[in-house]
From TrEMBL:
GO MF assignments: histone deacetylase activity, NAD-dependent; NAD+ binding; protein-malonyllysine demalonylase activity; protein-succinyllysine desuccinylase activity; zinc ion binding
GO cellular component annotations of the record: cytoplasm
Domain Deacetylase sirtuin-type: 1-235
Residues reported in the UniProt entry to bind substrate: Y56, R59
Annotated keywords: Cytoplasm, Metal-binding, NAD, Transferase, Zinc
Pfam families: SIR2 (PF02146)
Organism from which the protein derives: Parasphingorhabdus halotolerans
Record-given protein name: NAD-dependent protein deacylase
Taxonomy of the source species: Bacteria, Pseudomonadati, Pseudomonadota, Alphaproteobacteria, Sphingomonadales
Residues at which Zn(2+) binds: C117, C120, C137, C140
PROSITE patterns membership: SIRTUIN
InterPro entries (UniProt xref): DHS-like_NAD/FAD-binding_dom (IPR029035), NAD-dep_sirtuin_deacylases (IPR050134), Sirtuin (IPR003000), Sirtuin_cat_small_dom_sf (IPR026591), Sirtuin_class_III (IPR027546), Ssirtuin_cat_dom (IPR026590)
The keyword Amino-acid biosynthesis appears for this protein: no
Length: 236
């Protein structure tokens, strides 16, 4: 721990599971009840925008009923107290890391609370008002061009250059609550190791990529992440 200055943390759906947000894979996962091709591709949106909007409207409505859990709060505490570089990269489109107070945060797969106008290219926040996706873009007033600001299958995640740079410079890479089934995020551990970082996984169960990590801790994020954060901060 003495030589750790730069930390990159990757989170997935598992970090929000104890808040009551559904994960994607597994028996109660979102992809058990929906076909990815029907709701999470640009082709699906072109074919049936109402179905796609409904899927994300329901998930956005669910956000109002959930709260950050002990894992989100511990990561926000680490963000505020860590004197070195730190980047929290989340695959989650919920706003629980934001609400817990994490500042050095990237949403690589987009955000439920954001809409993207395909006419003017601007993003608008649902938190700014009562915007629905069917009326005009609040920035350019054109109708019919707003889409959920979600990175769909077949699309490039956001901020990849910044993430790759952080991975190349980090001393510690920690992956929390992700199945390691979706690239490029699933490959971050290999990049970080390639550049010499220590690597730690926290997950309920061994994931597809567990063997890539120096250390794996199995259990609930809400219990293990606060302990890990205290461990890290005890070395500051
Ligand atoms: N604590 C820790 N880990 C947990 C918990 C918990 N309480 N509950 C579940 N998990 C773990 C599961 O064991 C699983 O490995 O979280 C992981 C969730 O995996 P997925 O449902 O596949 O979610 P994620 O890895 O975030 O998915 C990646 O896939 O569909 C796309 O764009 C979507 O961002 C998403 C991406």
């Amino acid at each position: 721990m003495r030589d750790i200055h730069n930390i990159v943390i990757l989170t997935g759906a598992g970090v929000s599971a104890e808040s009551g947000v559904a994960t994607f894979r597994g028996p109660d996962g979102l992809w058990e009840g929906h076909r990815v091709e029907d709701v999470a591709t640009p082709e699906a949106f072109a074919r049936d925008p109402d179905l796609v909007q409904k899927f994300y409207d329901e998930r956005r409505a669910k956000l109002k009923t959930v709260e950050p859990n002990a894992a989100h709060q511990a990561l926000a505490k680490l963000d505020q107290a860590w004197p070195g570089d730190l980047l929290l990269v989340t695959q989650n489109v919920d706003d629980l890391h934001d609400r817990a107070g994490s500042q050095r945060l990237l949403h690589m797969h987009g955000e439920l609370n954001s809409a993207w106008c395909l006419a003017c290219g601007e993003r608008s926040s649902f938190l700014d008002g009562q915007m629905a996706l069917d009326p005009a873009c609040p920035k350019c007033d054109q109708f019919g061009f707003l889409r959920p600001d979600i990175v769909w299958f077949g699309e490039m995640p956001y901020e990849m250059e910044r993430i790759e740079l952080a991975l190349a410079q980090c001393d510690l890479f920690v992956s929390i609550g992700t199945s390691g089934a979706v690239y490029p995020a699933a490959g971050f551990v290999q990049s970080a190791r390639h550049y010499g970082a220590q690597t730690l996984e926290i997950n309920l169960y061994p994931s597809e990529g567990s063997f890539h990590f120096h250390e794996s801790r199995m259990g609930k994020a809400g219990e293990l992440v606060p302990d890990w954060v205290e461990e890290v901060l005890s070395h500051v």
